[in-house]
Amino acid sequence: MRATLPTPASAAAPAPATQRRSASWSLPLWAAVPAAAASGFLLNLASPPAGWWPLAFVSVTVALLTLVGRRIGGALLVGTIFGAVFYTTHLVRVGEFLGPVPWLALAGLEAVLFGAGAVPITLAYRWTGRHRSRSGMQLAAVPLLVAGLWAAREVVMGAWPYSGFPWARVGMTQVGGPIAEVASWTGVTGFSFLIVAVCAAVVQWFRAGGIRFHKGLLPAGVVAVFLVLVPQFPTTAAGEFRVGWVQGNGPTGYFDDRTPGDVLAAQTAATRSLYGQPMDLLAWPEGGVDADPLSDPAAAETLDRVVRSAGAPLLMNAATTRGDQVFNTSLLWTANPADRQWHDKVNPVPFGEYVPDRWFYELVVPDLVGLIQREYTPGTNSPIVQVGDVGVGLAICFDVIYDTVIWDGARSDAEVFVFQTNNADFRGTDENLQQLAFARMRAIETGRAIVNVSTVGTSQVIAPDGTTLDSIAVNTAGGSISTVPLRTGLTAAVVLGPWLTGLIVLAAAGGLAAAGLSHRARTRAGGSDRPTDQARRP
After folding, report:
1. What percent of the chain stands above pLDDT 90?
2. Could you write out the DSSP letters of every residue in 244-301?
3. Of 148, 221, 272, 359, which residue has the fewest beta carbons closer than 10 angstroms?
4. Whole-number Cα distances in Å, 92 to 84, 86, 163
5. β partners of residue 483
6. Omega into 49 within 30° of 0, i.e. cis?
7. pLDDT-based confidence at 9, cuts 50/70/90?
8. Which sign does the torsion angle of CA 329, 332, 334, 339 carry?
């Protein structure tokens, strides 16, 4: 009688075709490149001001599909293509200010960084590729890892180089959609993580069998239901606050023709219509005073008159000098000099308010670098001023895009925010609307009303739920007095945001390392991942 050797389970029956697809499926490079370009363009349409928010889910899903089965070089290529299309279209406004060289340089740098961040995602797909792709571990853990890596890329690009550029994040695309309230629990980074998790779960379902495997959509469905059903984190009503705010529409652009005092005169003229009306605070935009009132007696006297006429302290902004250092400063100008308070901009804009490594860039683009004469110093004081017993949180221009500035203001007991900005250099572009979207998201994230006042527009008053209460159109001089709600209590985003951001980055890095070690161990043990490796495309 012939002995029969046992047949290994892996050889007893071939895996179903839908399971084999996870080990072999990937887009050919000739298709992945245009798909990446298209998804980059879709993300721009999903972002403000177009704000077609559902396209963000389509964009991210397609972008992830282009990374499945790629080699490192291919992942770098398709990721860079995505970034190049997105950033060149989203940041076209930069070219209106300084021409094509800075625009393409910034877009190119961001595209390369975005492309480099695509490599870990491709490695995650490679190192987690198994025959049994329908397991709960694969369907849930892989999307969470991919989402973590995407969000970690946003964190890194938002901090490096030169303080980073956290302007374009997936979470921001949803500010006009029905799920924006989630940001009050997670912050923008956590919001991006959840959105990408939904998309990555759809990709994993497709790899596991797609339409023939209905249960595979459960992870995506769970996260999607969470996004839809979560309400805004509650804060506590604490009264009302009357804010007068003025858009002077003066010559505040870098290349605008003006003489000293023109900007201050424009702001003063636009403020006169508010005199005689009760207000708790009068707010002017960034750059609303074109002299340093701490050293210019004439400017100081003008501000004194404004405060007396308004019957309220004036929150204004000017470039100030202390010793050898220059700051972008918001000053609470009061009748009593002893009561004056100030906050200096935390993140001066590189190549706009200072030139990092000036010696190097003067060798590369001396004419452009020569235009930037001032070197602003980063501020270190808290982003808040006290008006009576009300804490007013602050963010100066692009500081609105930095999470920590907003969180610091809220944790310092801000009950309302005033964002001061100067958008004059971007007249005729959508920059002001992109920045305004950040202000709306910050209102939702913190549960605070926000007065966003610009030199040339668009200025708006935003309710704690992100809705617009009042507005002055672009390129219009005007002022208004708005009664805004005060709120106390911290949202989960403010309390947990720093911890959640760090956790996402560390968990993504640790998860990728663990996947790599597991992949190596499986390969040494018998090469169970070989079908995936053999099927990798460029």
Report:
1. 74
2. EEEE---S-STT----TTHHHHHHHHHHGGGTTS--SEEE--TT--SS-TTT-HHHHH
3. 359
4. 12, 10, 21
5. 242
6. yes
7. very low
8. negative
